[in-house]
Amino acid sequence: MTQLAHAEMREDLACALRWAVRLNLHEGVDNHFSAAVPSEDGELRGDRFLINPYGVHWSEITASALCLCNEEGEVLEGGEKVENTAFYIHSRIHVNVPSAKVVLHTHQPYSTAITLLEGGRLEMCEQNALMFDDRIAYDDEYDGLALANEEGDRLARAMGNRSIAFLASHGVIVSGETVGDAFTDLFYLERAAQFQMIAKATGGKLRAISDKVRDSVRQQFAEERPKLAERHFAALKRILDREEPEYRL
User: Fold this and answer.
1) Do residues 129 and 192 lie in contact, with contact meaning Cβ atoms separated by under 8 Å?
2) For a tag on the chain, would you pick the N or C end, based on fewer CB atoms within 10 A?
3) Residue 172 domain flag
């Protein structure tokens, strides 16, 4: 990874963290966003990653404030500590799930509300939800705080080859190839969950969408989602460049 690419990844993570505050996807100084970076030999193995530091509010995050860690939990760059549960969740997913180059973990309200329901699932009954059709894993066994490698490994196994995980009584994990890809998924996942919870609150029955239509829309989103993510995240960066340009520092 070139120095320029490393700097851009830091800026993208800082942008995503600040936008999570604006969109009420954050939980103060808790929860974490991370991105894997190549090891010293240039290989991307997930054993080194950028992550937001412990105790810094997401609205305060700047690119230079992010910590670079290794899989032993050592902070290689950055003057702050990394919170223990953040390390055990993110490090083990980066190492065990090769596709998870970016890992975003939140307790965002509507998505988390679904994890509180017995057998809670994101129902494939609305267009935003269909963006995630066949992409979600469900971990139905809450096992306490992630304070050991074993729990991080368990969560990684629960994700399997899916890019998104709903964690029972806990929150969600969204992973992706780039910060922009993952953050766009995080945003639309919360929108889909919000629509579902509002609709269910009416007491009415959710509409059904046929398997034929679901198959078609899944293929459509496979083509459209990357373009949407690129446009969406570029717009978010433009807005921050006008209103909070210090995120790049």
Assistant:
1) yes
2) C
3) yes
185 belongs to a structural domain: yes
Examine residue 249 and state whether it is found in any structural domain, yes or no: no
Distance CA 249, CA 63 (A): 6
pLDDT tens for 118-154 read 999 999 999 999 999 999 999 999 989 998 999 999 9
> Which residues form the domain of 127?
3-242
248 inside domain: no
CATH number at residue 96: 3.40.225.10
Which helix (H) or strand (E) segment holds residue 146: the answer is none
| DSSP per-residue letters across 47-96 | SEEEEPPTT--GGG--GGGPEEEETT--EEE-SS---HHHHHHHHHHHHH
Q: Are the C-beta atoms of residues 202 and 123 closer than 8 Å to each other?
A: no
Classified as helix, coil or strand, 121 is coil
- Look at residues 215, 95, 206 and name the one whose alpha carbon lies nearest to residue 159: 95
What's the pLDDT tens digit per position in 193-249?
A: 999 999 999 999 999 999 999 999 999 999 999 999 999 999 999 999 999 999 999
How many structural domains are present in the chain? 1
Count of CB atoms situated within 10 Å of the CB of 41: 6
